[in-house]
Specification:
The complex is a heterodimer of chains A (331) and B (336). With 331 residues, chain A is α/β, with parallel strands linked by helices. Chain A is built from twelve helices and ten strands. Chain A has one domain: TIM Barrel. The longest helix of chain A is centred in the first third of the chain and has 16 residues. Chain A is globular and about 55 Å long. Chain B has 336 residues and is α/β, with parallel strands linked by helices. The chains are: A alpha/beta (331), B alpha/beta (336).
């Protein structure tokens, strides 16, 4: 593909046009020396549609490990032999302390994450909604949570507790999903997202790259997220944890990772593309380039089962690029 | 500058046309949101004219401090009260050892650097020639020299000792030079480079940004280097050392640094453009971005008066950018 075509497609998106699946696939086949041009186009699209604000969030792993599901990438699956101490739901005081710490780091949002299939019959659910309410009283953070599969009653209860956004990844393109998880279906994930949206909540949904999927699967994922009209798209890059089924998965080339971000930006011009887990290992010193390749969100601080560089370093990276972390929690 | 203009100008450069001063000044007007585009084209120009190799070199501070000159940025000037420790000329053994260390760190060439005005009346010159001979004989990597002002006589002696490349920065533009240094002139620097060139030496010459210069100054520096047909262009970013005249100089924004490197690549399509001292402190975690915005060289290891970082981090960064550390081209055996 000639680089004239990269610009032509960039212009099309800047003018409000949509990228077709074939056009997106063509952009996966550009020469390596042209990847920075694609990144620059994505950067322009990001600036045009979303400005210079970077949406930051922090998460707390509120209940870890022992998960019944078999997602191949996940250190928390009970089927994987991972050196990870499972623990039951943290006390409300500890969850609140994590939220306050996130707020002190400058995070705009705070997300409570729990291991497990979901909340349909989960005895902890009432304590989780209580913690959400408590964070609402005691901090100015936007509140999110990521609790797995939900039914309509749970969605209603979470909304009443004050969350504004629910996180639930599609993880991968539909045609690849069964290769990474067999204990629940892609459709179940979509169903939860639809329920959440129908209740008027925002949705944060993305996935993981570097699991052995092809470009077509990544494009498929991005188009599915566009179709679902989600608000925020976290992109994780596999950090192959020892003991998981994907422990030996070879890493992606850094330029391929950046190219993926750029393609997601062109497919999802006005959404929040959120840098998530695995970025340090996958990109090394090219991490800041993600923000010049279409990213405009960041999970700062630590991830669920792996550590980040620290929230302060993450915020410094954002500012160093002339971008502004979304400031000021809600009044 | 509109992105359309950047693209049009880049196309011209890719077709082999040199950019004019006016065009380069237009590039300097690139807005923040188009810096990645400018950098991406610089990357494309680099790939086309300079290939995928990143030239890694190191420096050996062979005589430090007590310099009579008053360059405002320099920790080695006697006009400045810094913590820089002066020392006399190192021995050939010490030079040999330092070159071996840089070889181990992965450098493909290294420069023997001495403080002071230059070699025209320097009592150490004969000892420096002996030291260089030893280095050239024993090191597996290319040996360069950076000894200040030289005349035709010294240039010829250096070439006769087996030296291939002389390093001597222009530092900044002719216009701005007197604001940086009053004890010698830009013309002296220019003449030194001409003397080295006429002795058949390759030139490594660049400068330092962040001194308070304008975009015009930076572009005039790059154009002067183009006129001199230098092989390698080290670009330092001021690290304001306490006690120097420029200690209070505010830092450049990382994106402005990236923009500077990109514009240098537009002006010097086929040269080695080498981020040098100050990259760590000024760019922090954005050094990798330079390698995708036109840079294709690095100084690894320590700088003259302050430390660098572990060179392994630089090699990882080069690989992550999809580039390859310079082959053995700079190594002596390949030159023979």
């Amino acid at each position: 593909m000639s680089y004239d075509r990269i610009f032509a497609l960039g212009k099309q998106v800047l003018a409000g046009g949509r990228l077709s699946c074939d056009e997106a696939l063509a952009l996966t086949r550009i020469a390596e020396e042209d990847i920075p041009l694609l990144l620059a186009v994505a950067n322009k699209v990001r600036a045009h549609f979303t400005g210079n604000r970077v949406d930051t969030c922090e998460i707390v792993n509120a209940r870890s490990g022992g998960c019944s599901e078999d997602c191949k990438f996940c250190a928390q699956s009970a089927r994987h032999d991972v050196k990870l101490e499972p623990y039951p739901l943290l006390s409300e005081a500890r969850i609140l302390a994590a939220a306050k710490q996130a707020e002190s780091h400058g995070a705009y949002r705070f997300c409570i994450v729990t291991a497990g299939c979901g909340m349909k019959n989960d005895p902890d659910f009432g304590r989780i909604t209580a913690a959400i309410e408590r964070i609402g009283r005691d901090t100015g953070l936007e509140r999110c949570c990521s609790l797995g599969i939900l039914g309509p009653e749970q969605v209603k209860a979470l909304k009443a507790a004050g969350i504004t956004r629910y996180h639930h990844n599609l993880e991968a393109g539909q045609s690849f999903f069964s290769k990474i998880c067999t204990t629940h279906s892609y459709e179940e994930r979509v169903e939860t997202i639809r329920l959440v949206k129908a209740a008027g909540l925002e949705v944060c949904s993305g996935g993981i790259i570097g699991m052995g999927e092809g470009w077509e699967h990544r494009i498929e994922l991005a188009f599915a997220l566009r179709e679902l009209d989600v608000d925020s798209v976290p992109i994780n890059i596999l950090n192959p944890v020892k003991g998981t089924a994907l422990e030996n998965q070879p890493p992606l080339k850094p330029l391929e990772v950046l190219q993926t971000f750029a393609l997601f930006r062109l497919i999802l011009p006005d959404k929040i593309l959120r840098y998530a887990g695995g970025r340090e290992r996958a990109l090394g010193e090219l991490v800041p380039l993600g923000f010049l390749a279409g990213m405009n969100g960041m999970l700062i601080g630590n991830y669920l089962t792996t550590s980040g560089r620290g929230a302060a370093a993450d915020i410094a990276t954002i500012r160093g690029l002339g971008l502004a972390p979304v400031a000021g929690a809600r009044p | 500058m509109h992105s359309r203009e950047i693209i049009a100008l880049a196309e011209l450069v890719l077709e082999g046309h040199p950019v004019t001063r006016g065009e380069a000044l237009r590039l300097a007007e690139t807005g923040v949101e188009d810096i990645p585009l400018l950098g991406a084209y610089a990357n494309k120009i680099r790939a086309k004219f300079a290939g995928q190799e990143v030239d890694m070199c190191g420096v050996v501070n062979a005589r430090s401090g007590l310099c009579p000159e008053d360059c405002g940025f320099c920790a080695q000037s006697v006009h400045h009260r810094t913590n820089c420790r002066p020392f006399p000329l190192i021995s050939p053994d010490e030079a040999e050892k330092a070159l071996k260390e840089l070889d181990r760190a992965g450098a493909r060439r290294a420069s023997i650097v001495t403080s002071g005005k230059g070699m025209v009346h320097d009592p150490d010159f004969a000892a420096i020639i002996a030291l260089l001979r030893r280095g050239i004989e024993t090191a597996e990597i290319g040996v360069c020299a950076n000894l200040g002002t030289i005349g035709l006589e010294q240039a010829a002696a250096l070439a006769a000792a087996g030296l291939k490349r002389y390093a001597h920065n222009l530092e900044t533009s002719r216009r701005f030079y007197p604001s940086v240094c009053t004890t010698h002139s830009y013309e002296e620097r220019w003449n030194t480079l001409q003397a080295a060139k006429s002795a058949g030496l390759e030139l490594c010459s660049g400068g330092i940004i962040g001194l308070g210069e304008t975009w015009e100054d930076r572009i005039d520096l790059a154009l002067a280097l183009r006129a001199l047909a230098v092989s390698s262009v080290p670009v330092n970013i001021l690290n304001p050392v306490k006690g120097t005249a420029l200690e209070g100089q505010p830092p450049l924004h990382p994106l402005e640094i990236i923009k500077t490197f990109a514009i240098f690549r537009f002006i010097l399509p086929d040269k080695v453009i080498r981020p040098a001292g100050g990259r760590e402190i000024n760019l922090r975690d954005m050094q990798g971005a330079l390698l995708l915005a036109g840079a294709n060289g690095l100084i690894v290891g320590n700088y003259l008066t302050f430390g660098g970082r572990d060179s392994r981090a630089d090699f990882t960064m080069v690989h992550d950018a999809g580039l390859v550390p310079g082959s053995l081209a700079g190594r002596k055996q390949n030159e023979l």
